[in-house]
Hints:
Layout (H helix, E strand, L loop, with lengths): L1 H17 L8 H20 L10 H40 L3 H14 L4 H17 L3 H21 L4 H14 L2 H14 L4 H13 L3 H14 L4 H14 L6 H8 L1
Helix pairs in contact: 1-2, 2-3, 3-4, 3-5, 4-5, 5-6, 5-7, 6-7, 7-8, 8-9, 9-10, 10-11
Amino acid sequence: RALAAAAMTALFMQHIHGLVDFNLQIPANALVMMALVGLSLCRAKEVGVVHAVPLPRLSRGALSFALILIVLVCFTSFWQNFWGTQHLLKGEAFADEIEWELAEEELTKAWATDPQDFRIAMALGDLFRVQATWAIEKDWRAELSVKARSWYEIARQLNPISAEIVHRQAELETWAGDRSTAEALYLEAISMDPHNAFINTQYGIWLRSEERTQDALDIFRQVLEWAPDDEASLANVKAIEAELGISQPTPSSTEAEET
């Protein structure tokens, strides 16, 4: 009874998790759920909680077909995820080597293999965004920017709670010169993940580029309150204080003095 109760509890918690996340889209989680269902039913039968009822041959055949179909679906999902990830890794490696055509080819294969993986859409957005920053011709830059926006939107549809995707959209709009949209996206990303030191620091750097020095200084100091070892924020605080001719101890220096 204890084993059956534990399995049922695990299933219940997995379904609760599914209310706020996409956990069953991960093949491993789906397989674990199937194993828990089988385990709970098996133990429940052994201890007499449920009783086996003979099924007609037609019903047994339909049940067997359904089980085989479920296994095939899970296997197909696992296969798509595996090969999609392989193409994604190859595409990112080519992008790091500035092999744009090969990177796009591999990422396109990854998307064709697993069109539900937001990481692939985000990687394609990154690929076109970086190419746009390197493009010389104005029309080509505009076309690449449109492609990047499109892929970032697809990534957000697949994973609407990712602050990193919104942050990358902000970087794209910053480069494109749409300052108001860029700031709105930075603030949206921060609202989604308020204690993300990297995104907050990038927003502070953006504020410095807009000559909003005091606002940037406030952001960097706020980051240092929960991430006192953040090197980028420390460097920016020191640079701004030197520019403004002020000297206030950062959280890390205060802790060092107390020690």
